[in-house]
Structures are given as C-alpha cells and as structure tokens.
Amino acid sequence: MKIDRRSFLSLGIGGAAGIVLSPLPWKLMDDSAIWTQTWPWTPVPPKGDATYVNSACTLCPGGCGISVRKIDERAVKIEGIKGHPVNDGGICLLGLSGLQLLYGPTRIKTPLKRDGERGAGKWIEISWEEAISNVAEKLGDLRKNGKSGSVAFISGIDKSTVPALFKRFLSVYGSSGFMRMPSAADSYELAVYHSLGLKAQLGFDIENSDFVLSFGSGIIEGWGSPVYMMRANGNLRKTGGKIIQIEPRLSNTAAKSNKWIPLNPGTEYALALGLADVIITKSLYNRDYINNSTSGFGEFAAFVQSLYSPDKVEKITGIKKDIIETLAVDFIKAAKPVAICGRGQGRAQSSLGEVIAVQALNALVGNINRKGGAFTVSDPGYFSLPGVISGKMAETKPANIFINDVNSGKCTANALFIYEANPLYSLPDSNSVKEAFAKIPFIVSFSSFMDETAMNSDLVLPNHIYLERYEDVYIGSIPKPVVSLLKPVVNPQFNTKHTGDVIIQIAKKMGSSLADSFRWDSYDSFLEKALGDKWKVLSEESFFEDKKAAELSLKKFDFTGDFSDFKSLFLDLNAQGNPDKYPLVLIPYDSVRIANGYIGNPPFVVKTVEDTALKEKDIFVEVNPVTAKALGLLEESSAMIETPKGKAKVKIHLFEGIMPGLVAMPRGLGHSAYDKYIAGKGINVNELIGTIEDPASGLDAGWGIRAGLLKC
Amino acid sequence: MKEEKNNKNAKKFGMVIDLDKCTGCGTCMVACMSENNIPFKEDESNKLYSITWMRVYRLTNGKSYPDTDICYLPRPCQHCGGRGDHGHSPCVSVCPATATDYSKETGIVSQIYTRCFGCRYCMAACPYHARYFNWWDPVWPKGMEKYLSPNVSVRMRGVVEKCSFCFHRYQLAKDKAYYENRSEIEENEYQTACAQACPSGAIAFGDLNNPAHAVCELKKNKNAFRLLERLQTNPKVYYISGRQWVRHAGDNHLKRDS
User: Fold this and answer.
1) How far is A619 from chain B (nearest CA, A)?
2) Class assignment of domain B13-253?
3) Is the ipTM of this complex over 0.90?
4) Are strands A50-56 and A65-71 parallel, antiparallel or unpaired?
5) Could you say which residues from 484 to 543 on chain A have a Cβ atom under 8 Å away from some Cβ of chain B?
6) Mean pLDDT across the stretch B144-152?
7) Class of the domain covering A115-183+394-462+498-550
8) Are A611 and B27 in contact (CB < 8 Å)?
9) What's domain A206-372's superfamily in CATH?
C-alpha cells in the first residue's frame, strides 16, 4: 500500500485520537499518581478495636493519672484521666511521649553483662537466671567477707513499695546504704524536721492561695508535680490570685507572674529575712499564731531586726528597699498568702537557711496547715510489709552526699544498685560522680533504657517500663497526697523483668534470713498483700487520696530551727571560682520542654525545643545584650565557656530577660547515651557546675558557678 | 463554585486560646503530634523543615532588662472562612487540585493527602505558616510504628499537611451519636487533642455558632483578637490577652504602620 501525505496524516491523527480517547493514558496517569503516593514503606496502621486502660505516669515525680488508648494490643495514645486529683484530664508533653519510650530504640531488651572496658558499650546478652545468680553470688561473697555494709542502692523514688523492698533487703542483708536522688525535698524535709519536729514533706496549696511569693520556684515549669501546679496556677488566676516571682532570670513563671523581681542569685534567704524584718518591725504578723503555735520568735525577731533591715538587704539582694517594704506589706495583707522556694523544677537541693527563712514567712502569716498555705504530709501509710525484721530499717540519704563520701574515702562501696535514676548524668559535677563510680567495683543498673549510668555499669537488669507493670505510685508533694496504681497497659515488649521480682528472686537465691524475709511468689502477689484492702480500691478506681498521710498533729513552729546557734544557718554562699579569672556567673535553668530527670527527652519533646536553645548539635546560652556587647559577642556567636569545673563550646543567645553578668544554660541536654534523637545534642550543664556545701546541713546549696566566656 | 447550603444546623468549629493562661509548656504541640501520626527526624532544630501542626511561638515585647516580657502563642491552622465565611480561605482559593477544601457544614478546612501533588501554592498563600511540606518520607525507628493511630492516615513524601481540628475525632463522635440514635453531639464529645491535653486549660474548643458552647461566650471577651485580622481571612481561632503589646503583636503592625 502506498502511503501518501493524506493517509499518513489521517493515520497519525486517527491513531493519536484513538489513544487519547482510549482509557490508556488516563489509566497510566492514575496509576503513576497512585504509585507515587502508595510507596510500601509508608506504614498503614492496622485497624482494630479501641479500648482505654487507666494507669499512672512515672516519667517524673508528678504522679499524673493516665488513660491509654489501645487499638487491639497496640497502645496508640496517652491521655490524662478526667477527674484524677493530680491532673484532672491534663497531661504534660513528656507524659504524652511515653509510647515513644515504650516502643523506642533505646529500650534494653534483655539482661546484659559488661564485656570489655566499662562504658565501652560492649555487652554479652545473658539469661535472667544467670544474671540473678551473678548478683546473689557477689552479694554472698561480700557478706562472707564481712563487707555487707558496703552495699548501696540509689533510687529515684523512696516512698512506695519497690523502694520498701530495697530497704528491707538492705536491712536484712546488713547495710544502711539506701539513697535517693537529691532534690529540694531533701532540704524541705530537713527544714520541717528542724522547725516543726516532724518527719514530713510539705505540700503547697497554690490553688487556694491568693498571693504566692515564689523565690525562684518554676510553678509552671515543672516544679513539684508539674501538671498539678499548672492547673493550680490556672485556678489561682481565675480567682484573681497573684504570683510574685523572684529570680534573676525571666523564666516562663516570671513572665506569667503579676510581678517579676530580679535579685542577685543565691541571696533568696536574705530577702526572706528582710521581708520578715519589715513584717515584724511594722507589727503586721499573725499574733494569734505567733503566740500560740510558735517558739523562738523573740530571738528570731531580734536577729532579723539587727542584721536584715531593708537597707542591708538591698545591698545583698540588689532589690531596692522600697520594693522590699511594699512586697512585705502586700504579702502579709493578703488573705491567704504563701511563700515557696526551691529553684526551677526543684530538682536541686537548697540551703537549709533558705528553706527555714522562707518557712518563717509562712509562720508569720500563720498559714501552716491552713487552706491556701503549706501542708505537712507524712510518709505514706497505705501499705505495710508483713512480718517484722530484725535490724534497723535503712534510712534514706541523698545520693550526692554518698558520692562525696566515696570520693573522700569516708565510705567504701563495693556494690551499687541503681533504680530509676541516672546519677552519672543528673548529679552536678559529673567528673566527681565518674570518679566515685570508678571506685565502686560492682555496679548494677535496673534501667529500662540505655542511659549514661546503665552504659557505665557492669550488669544491666532491665525493668519493665511503667506501661508494662503493676506498681504503686505515691505523690506527697501536694496538700492531699495521692496513690495511683500502675497497670500493665501492654504485655512486656522485651525480655525484661519487674525489679520487684528481681529483688525477691535474689533474696530467695541467697537463702537463710533473706529468703525468709521475702516469701512472696512474685512482686504482684506481694503488692496485693501489702496494699490490703486498698488493693481493691486501686485496681478498680486506679487512684485514691491518702488522707491518713495529711492528718498530722502539729507541733510548734520553731523559728530557731532547734539550733543553738541558728544565726549560722543564714550565710552568703558564694559561687565557686575566682571572680578575676571568671568574671561571669553561670546558672542552670529548667525548661518544661527539656526533660532533665531520669528520663531523657523523647523525640517528640526534642521537637518542641526552641532554636534559641538548641540548633543542630549546638547549645545556646542566654546572655544579656549588655554583657554580650562588652565581650564582643553577637547573636549566634560561638564562644567557649569556662568554669572551675570544665569548659565547653557554646553559642550565644541574646536575651533581655537575664540579669547582666549572668550566663544561663538549660538543664537536660548533652546526653551521651540514649539514641540519636537526643545523644550528642548540646552540653550537660552538670559537667560545668559544682556543688556548694551548706555548712548547716551538708546538703548542696549550689545555685551557680563563676564562669568566663571567650569569643571563638 | 459550590452550592450554598442553607443548613440551619451548620456548625462553625473554632478555638479560643487564652494567652494569659498559656504557659508555653508545649503540651499542645506534642498532643497534636501523638494524635496525628506526625513524623520526626534526627534533627528538628531547623524549624522551617519541622512539621508541627500546632506550633507555640514565643513573642517578646522588645524592651530591655528588666522590663522585658514574654508571651507564648500557640498556632494551629486558623481554619479561615474568608470574607463572609464563603469559604474563600487563602489556601482553598489557590489549590489547583481541590486537595484542600472548606466545609460549610463544620467550617473546617480539610486537607486530602492523596489529592495533593505538592505544588505548595497553599503554603505560599497561608499567612500563618500553618502548612507543612513533607520533604522526606516519614521514618519511624524499628518497632515505633506500633503506636501509630489508624484514625489518621500517615502522610507520604511530597504532600502538604496541616492541622485538621482533629477531624477524625468529629467523625468518631458522629458515628457514636448515630449508633446511639442521636442527631447531635455534645460539646465534650468532640474536643481537639490539644484542647484536651492542655494542663492550664488555656485552649477552649467548640461550635462558635452554638451559644451553649464555651467558645461562643469566650470570643466576646473585650481582649479577644484574631491574627492578622486586617487581611480579612476571617480565622476561627481567637486569642485572649490582657496585655496590650500582645494584642498589638497579633496584628503584626510594622513600625511604620503607626
């Protein structure tokens, strides 16, 4: 057939028209569109039945009630329990991220034994049986050699049943080395013991107060029980209550307060005494309360009037004396004022003098155990361990004092067990903690996650995480303490074991008196027995208010703290370092968006960290523009920060909300362990700061350290 | 153009955020991430590439120490109705694929991922930076995909996403109501994840048309304002602040504007 121009064109056009009219191009286009969007590596979450399980959160000491949404056997969302006395439906960002920890890459999947150098990250997977006999053997040897006393426990919590098992174990074994991680609670408990003669914590009724005088406490930044406090702050505002925030840096709490009063860091105690002086001099205090319920008032009054007049306090704190006078009058004239202290989230101890001075203000208004005031909360009474054991029950001590004692040789530790704590990361002066750890030949971690401390231990016996186990959770830092029950929301994801079970099994393996004191089959059966009639309430309701702990008969408030020389309580504790070499002062600050306790930030929480605190791997320190200008530093300049404890490269963020002469660094960054979503980001401020020993109590009163910033 | 529905039952879901109560804690951001299967990367410090349907901005008054002040401002999608609530929101007007649409029934601006082909016109059009583009495939570390919710589709590389006012929760609540033979849902049956989680109770959510809902009264507060009102985007997110400088910042006045 001859192809002429006409037939060529008609064939071409006809063919093209045919193709266009056929479904082929449309089908291909559609297919390619679908193909570009249905790549098999984009997960499609399987459907299933939705259920909710009520439990509690243990990621911080807050004790919120949580309700976990499940799709079949998968946990998909954590929410707050509506009506729970701590959080009433609210929740925080760390609590919301719990499932990233549950299913995350940082979980320890099976018991591990160190292989090679400590901290090298080389492990041999072992069976639970081997792990338990390993520990039992080691403890047996130490006991045989008369070294029982050199065994120590560091725990993140100390009031509930698992620490009670630790204490029982230690008592029967013959050691008194039970430690908890340091916090403002140490200082508070000591202050309550000295001034009220009680063994109790203090819970503050912020919600019902109308005037909160906060000496640097981050009420909305995770102080005490974070969600409880944020709620209390909201309710306080609803009723027109006021918050006065006193601290050298404009924290979120300061920004949200009715008045921010910056003061020289570390002089909080002097301001409290100065306010007391104004109140006493003007005779504005609660006479009834002072006459009937306190002692030592005369001595205290004479002391503050001679040494802490507004003029003198102005010199110490840098706050103008007329501001001090107005503040004192406003405080005392409010209907339900309350004074609180414990810097930031209250994760660090304070000097005893500071807490007693602030509590003296509460005594002057007579608000102790009064609505809107400070409530004394005794140790929990909701559970009892059956059977009497011989020997003295181990007392709780702060872990930082233990570290000091190991370093100074005052105490020898041959074995250390660590539960829900990360001392190697979270204690100040990281180098001294490392030094102490190096002196301890046998370290066992119960951590569920590969944190810094687990990395540096000899044996890791991973616990179920809080979403996989039964356990009681006690929260006593609020006016009415609350007990909640952890319930296994999902089955254990890995070859982990409840630490309660591990302790019981170690005791059984060791035999004799220890086996006799731990006769339970499992932790769960122990818990049920220890809780008695409360078990039913807890397993049905998942929480209850422990009213017994709040019912305390009060003794008199002793203004002198029962010290013969109470004046020595109140001292200016200078930051470590020579001001000539280190012209600035470094203070750590807490942010609710950076978890700084035992748990490192999960990926979602890292995502919320502002780019003025962390950019790529660099941490930013806050500096006042005036200070920065003098040093030739601009926004985002690189600089070297140096303190007597160490140095590190940082970037500069100019912040008008910080007192000139100070440098502020966030707590909670600079992890070296965990996963790539948190490790290697920024600097751990604990490597740069040291401790300041409070001579009155031996606790750490450190609030900062001298520092130098050099452009680089 | 779509047909105007004269539905008396038309809802107008909206939010009132009390900036005086907001503490800037960031819980709303994470509540949103965990509710809506939002992915994360190893480094999220470049906020241009960090997907946060709800983002908390930090505002300062620009004054020097010690008069400086901070305010936090949570920013979900504003679900603009456009002038007269006709649905001409900036993003809907420019989408060539009808991947984003305005619902006259709920007032919610939707985003249909499978229709979106990633031209990002809507991102350019949105004055609130509420839209995010998936530059990479979402990757969850091994095992972590177990927490993904089946109620929200996981997005793929190459599409735009944004806050949906947790629309799936509205669907679930409606399903439940239908099953129980009710035609209406209660205020507390449909709450966004951020409003539910906020520990300070700063976020209120509900039907702006329904006088029984808290938001209806709250938006009448004399200190209530919306972001960039002069653009007439008619957003459904209201803010309350007793601080004048914050209200002023909300309208983004430049210095020369007086």
Assistant:
1) 11
2) alpha beta
3) yes
4) antiparallel
5) 493
6) 96
7) alpha beta
8) no
9) Dimethylsulfoxide Reductase, domain 2 (3.40.228.10)
